[in-house]
Amino acid sequence: MALSKLEKRIRIKRRVRGKISGSSELPRLSVYKSNKEIYAQLIDDKNGTTLVSASSREKGVDANGTKTEVSAAVGKAIAAKAIAAGIEQIVFDRNGFVYHGRVKALADGAREGGLKF
Q1: Domain boundaries, the chain
Q2: What distance in Å separates the CA atoms of residue 78 and residue 46, rounded to the nearest whole number?
Q3: What pTM was estimated for this model as a whole?
Q4: d(CA 36, CA 31)
Q5: Rg of the chain (C-alpha set)
Q6: In the CATH scheme, what is the code of domain 21-111?
Q7: Which residues have C-beta within 8 Å of that of residue 86, sequence separation ≥ 6?
Q8: Which residues does UniProt call coiled coil (predicted)?
């Protein structure tokens, strides 16, 4: 029987997470998107802590416009918080989502904000 959309995403997520990992020097930028919102966080996998987070639900993020424009704003917000915390270099984790649309817009926003990956 065919896998559901969620099962496929989880399978891809496990495969990618086996290859990448975050540390305090090189944290992992994890992206999660729901139908309405988008969330991003920088994670130190060695200590199991979240260093910085941003989402479209926060007051500091401009939530006007299309979902793609909001995603770019979230990317810029997480980049600003990361640079304030002294983080410039990261590893990108698309969390099993296709690198297209909102996920790509978030990544481009983070690059514009000054993060390197």
Answers
A1: 21-111
A2: 21
A3: 0.91
A4: 14
A5: 14
A6: 3.30.420.100
A7: none
A8: none
